[in-house]
From TrEMBL:
Cofactor note: Binds 1 FAD per dimer.
Signal peptide stretch: none
Keyword Electron transport set for record: yes
Organism: Staphylotrichum tortipilum
Residues bound to FAD: 224, 250-251, 264-268, 281-288, 302
Keywords for the protein's UniProt record, in alphabetical order: Electron transport, FAD, Flavoprotein, Mitochondrion, Transport
Protein name: Probable electron transfer flavoprotein subunit alpha
Protein family per UniProt: Belongs to the ETF alpha-subunit/FixB family.
């Protein structure tokens, strides 16, 4: 890929579009399609050619059926094998490569999720392609836009590889409707049914009844200003519940043990773009802003009027969070 100046519009011709075929790699868990992975379908559609969706795992019919209903999907390729349940890259990458070669795809697209970041680089290596990561826009079939340096610069990259392997930033490609499609479902090739080299042993998941951080419409995040895990929970959780919001945290809060690692927002955490983002006791370091500055409305509560978070905030409240947040929570709960 080479860096080029930004181009204004798509240059894909109708004849070329007919030759484009994209494989959107979807994620599923326990038979339930992950809506967070559907951004891959939206990106695939923007290329203008055929769109196939790929799902794999045990009892895959349910997830395949859901994928078939997603608007814009022409065909679903499904592989029914428990070896692919948890998206282990050692098993999933050869599976994808086999199906990519079989289907003759020009583009392979997944979300910039833990799964996408884990599996697609292996796929790219096996195909001898250079991966194009975390794109936010498509200019034409070989030209893509992606943020670099924690979003401080935008690169437009052009790829000459015959098969483009791409991960997409979910906040830049809204998920398509999950109803209205009527794709056919086809069984895909399964190269390593009996020779899977990696086996899933166990996982410890942080369980929460609150909305999923990556896709929530509202997010309340706490920072080092919360001072301790006890205070983080006491102040932030009721605020989240009063707004029906997901809970996020700055890296300083995570590193200090106030919040779980899975809640980190920012350059090395999750990238979110909810309707409302409330930053509590967060200074607004560029690495944090990289994960939330595209939120529609940003509200900040900080005792330091010069905190950089106020430069990106639409609404700001200068004051002691231990006083202001419980007051706000009470008002919201009554509203
Ligand atoms: P601080 O910067 O310490 O800010 C705390 C704020 O709380 C201050 O503004 C203070 O005024 C306010 N405050 C304190 N007490 C109160 C009170 N009683 N009432 C109201 N306000 C109060 N950071 C991330 O968040 N996400 C990332 O993904 C991330 N990735 C990184 C990657 C790299 C390579 C590096 C070098 C850094 C990364 N960081 C990331 C860290 C980042 O640089 C900052 O250190 C971090 O975001 C600071 O967190 P904070 O705002 O909670 O803490």
């Amino acid at each position: 890929a080479t860096l080029t100046a930004a181009r204004a519009s798509t240059t894909t011709t109708p004849a070329l579009r007919r030759l484009l075929s994209a494989l959107a790699v979807l994620e599923q868990r326990d038979g339930q399609l992950s809506t967070g992975s559907l951004s891959a379908v939206t990106a695939a559609q923007r290329l203008g050619g055929t769109v196939h969706a790929f799902v794999a795992g045990s009892n895959i019919q349910a997830a395949a059926g859901q994928a078939a209903k997603v608007a814009g999907v022409d065909k679903v390729i499904a592989v029914d094998n428990g070896a692919y349940d948890r998206g282990l890259p050692e098993n999933f990458a050869p599976l994808l490569v086999e199906n990519i070669k079989k289907g003759g795809y020009t583009h392979v697209i997944a979300g910039t999720t833990a799964f996408g970041k884990n599996v697609l680089p292996r796929v790219a290596a096996l195909l001898d392609s250079q991966q194009i990561s975390d794109i936010t826009a498509i200019q034409d079939d070989k030209t893509f836009v992606r943020p670099i340096y924690a979003g401080n610069a935008i690169a437009t990259v052009e790829s000459a590889d015959p098969i483009k392997v791409i991960t997409v930033r979910g906040t830049a490609f809204a998920a398509p409707p999950t109803e209205g499609g009527s794709a056919t479902i086809e069984a895909g090739a399964d190269p390593n049914a009996d020779t899977a080299t990696a086996e899933w042993v166990s996982e410890n998941l942080a369980k929460s009844d609150r909305p999923d951080l990556a896709t929530a419409g509202r997010v309340v995040s706490g920072g080092r200003g919360l001072k301790s895990k006890e205070e983080f929970d006491r102040i932030m959780l009721p605020l989240a519940d009063s707004l029906g919001a997901a809970v996020g945290a700055s890296r300083a809060a995570v590193d200090s043990g106030y919040a779980d690692n899975s809640l980190q927002v920012g350059q090395t955490g999750k990238v979110v773009a909810p309707q409302l983002y409330v930053a509590v006791g967060i200074s607004g370091a560029i690495q944090h802003l990289a994960g939330m500055k595209d939120s529609k409305v940003i509200a900040a509560i900080n005792k330091d009027a010069d905190a950089p978070i106020f430069q990106v905030a639409d609404v700001g409240l200068v004051g002691d969070l231990f006083e202001k947040v419980p007051e706000l929570t009470e008002k919201l709960s009554k509203a």
